[in-house]
Design goal:
globular, alpha/beta, 310 residues, binds iron/sulfur cluster, 35% helix, 11 helices, binds thiamine diphosphate
């Protein structure tokens, strides 16, 4: 099965309107700002953003400037989804009372993997459980990057971070990546998806779906970070593709509980193709790489089973 839109090249299939504009201070080659830029194109003008502390907030709002061309609220790690719940409820009540015109306004929360899988998880769980109509996007660069590359529960097994330094007694990060999309899906919300800006049309299609569902939606975006992953700044798109092609970061969606692979890259590439060029994995032994391969293959088989793919 191929990604239906993988071969499309047509500039006019994507809106030219920009909501994350020039002037931000993201590192050269950052795929996270690219993911956000694409996502906002799909949401469009009638959007209110609630953003947890993280790279995307730090690089975009050095006082007194901003690169967001949308209403934008900066909140703490802990309460991003709770603030989005309040915004969504307030809009609903104001429209019911005819205090503001009735129209579709997207409420979008963006948080890093630290802000999502560690510190903001409780607020996110509450918002998903209450059924607010909003989209939560986790931009997952696999560590706390803007404060100096500390591990999160979304950091992959074996990765070097400043708080998981490898050495004689340590392989680096010693736990497996937390499965946030499945945690979100366990709330039985209408739409959950994974995405990566290396597959822009897949990402755009998923954001458009998330925008349409009535209730909460959760999109988990692998956001390659050249700075923290120790890769050249012109390789972010390539590593996003390798993550998908090796089965390390599968592209799928869960719509009303039904799993669907949106791209099947079989035969999978060797995980070494993804791991070897990244400085954060350079200490890994062939034994650890085999361990990772087995883990990835087992997860991939489980996911295919859930998606009904042989
Ligand atoms: C409660 C709290 N602890 C610590 C900080 C300092 N801090 C700001 S951003 C950040 C890391 C964010 O990591 P992540 O959510 O993964 O986003 P990234 O920077 O990687 O985009 C930290 C620790 C904070 N703002 N609030
Ligand atoms: S540290 Fe990484 S995620 Fe943050 S702006 Fe730089 S490249 Fe992007």
């Amino acid at each position: 099965m191929m990604l239906p839109s993988i071969d499309i090249y047509a500039a006019n299939t994507v809106s030219r309107e920009e909501f994350a504009v020039s002037g931000h201070r993201a590192c050269q080659g950052c795929a996270e700002i690219l993911a956000v830029r694409l996502a906002l194109k799909a949401f469009g003008r009638n959007t209110i953003m609630v953003m947890a502390t993280g790279c995307m907030e730090i690089i975009s709002t050095p006082l007194p400037t901003t690169d967001w061309k949308l209403p934008w609220i900066h909140v703490a790690f802990e309460n991003a989804a709770a603030v989005a719940s309040g915004v969504e409820s307030a809009l609903k009540i104001l429209m019911e009372k005819n205090k503001i015109p009735r129209k579709d306004i997207n409420v979008v929360t963006i948080g890093g993997d630290g802000g999502t899988s560690d510190i903001g998880l409780q607020a996110l769980s509450g918002a998903l459980e209450r059924g607010h109509k909003f989209t939560y996007i986790c931009v997952d660069n696999e560590a706390y990057m803007n404060t100096g590359i500390q591990r999160s529960s979304s950091t992959p097994y074996g990765a070097m971070t400043t708080t998981t330094p490898p050495g004689k007694k340590s392989i680096g990060q010693s736990t497996w990546k937390k499965d946030m999309p499945k945690i979100a899906a366990a709330h039985n919300i209408p739409y959950v998806a994974t995405a990566c800006p290396s597959y822009p049309f897949d990402l755009l299609a998923k954001i458009k779906k998330a925008k349409m569902v009535y209730g909460p939606s959760y999109i988990h975006v692998l956001s390659v970070c050249p700075t923290g992953w120790r890769i050249p700044s012109n390789m972010a798109i390539r590593y996003g593709r390798l993550a998908v092609e090796t089965g390390i970061f599968p592209l799928y969606e869960i719509e009303n509980g039904e799993y669907r692979l949106t791209y099947n890259p079989e035969p999978l590439r060797q995980v070494g193709d993804y791991l070897n060029g990244q400085g954060r994995f350079r200490h890994l032994t062939p034994e650890t790489i085999s361990e990772i391969r087995e883990h990835v293959n087992a997860d991939w088989e489980r996911l295919k089973h859930l998606c009904g793919v042989k």
